[in-house]
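Full entry
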Amino acid sequence: MRDQFNREIEYARISVTDRCNLRCRYCMPANGVSKLPHGEILSFEEILRVAEILARLGIHKIRLTGGEPLLRKNLPILVRELKSLRGIEIVTLTTNGVLLEKFASDLIAFGIDEINVSLDTLDAREFEKITRRGIFAEVHRGIQFLFDAGFRNVKLNCVPLRGVNEDNLVALAALAKDQNLKVRFIELMPFGCTSRSGFVGMTSAEIISKLENHFGKLIPCDGSKILQGPAKYFSIKNFVGQIGFIDALEHKFCGSCNRIRLTAEGFLKACLCYDTGVDVKKLLRSGASDEELLTVIRETIYRKPLEHSFERSSAARDARQMYQVGG
């Protein structure tokens, strides 16, 4: 369906848990957080019911997020059930990769279309500094398992941090030289713990300059692709894969935003930035019919805000942390 600004909304990010087995400094406090009781997060049955209604409204792509989604028991089964819904064409996953080696076979067998792995560095010491966990080897094995299994729809998501991992960005980009994957550099967002982390992000222009000094010219790729996301992709001579950039602050792309978000506790957000939306869980558990749900969800999507306001203060800014929203 189209929102009030005539944007085609076709992509939903669904968080299945607020729990995580890392403590990334720009996302969570060192001692973790108060976790939602299991009964407060949506059940798989509730997620599937909402997804079926979203499909009726024109949502074709679903990305499962967290927290860390692979901490949710039987997640591959949810992938299989979502794939069976009429109208859902693509089901993808964003993970930190720690449990990927354990679950990758089932995810692939049950039809996952794409797996995004959040990875800010290839240096084990930097990894521990950023995540507060010395388990880089597990992540590396999980990614390698995907390659060895012949799974080709892999994206690596890196948040460039000045003075922290900037010397490792070239090494990350180099992974796309011989592997058909996408390495994407994602702008640090002023959201949740970011302001308290002490980290400072880098601009796409800085990163492009660094990569071009090492590899040569980055060549823009054709963006005409079904269910296109916000990333801008580039190719490099003699590279099999591609390099991507997502920079919601440096180059605001709200005019082409095609997504909505459903939090683990069942709150439907039409924009990452704001606290507005609808408590879908309350409707589900108060006996609302599918048609009542469809009407409320349609109205929420239609009223999707024109643009975020991360670059300025706003009373309507969402106070949730990123792990509570779903990435």
The chain has twelve helices and twelve strands. The chain has one domain: 11-325. The first strand starts at residue 11 and ends at 15. The mean pLDDT is 91.
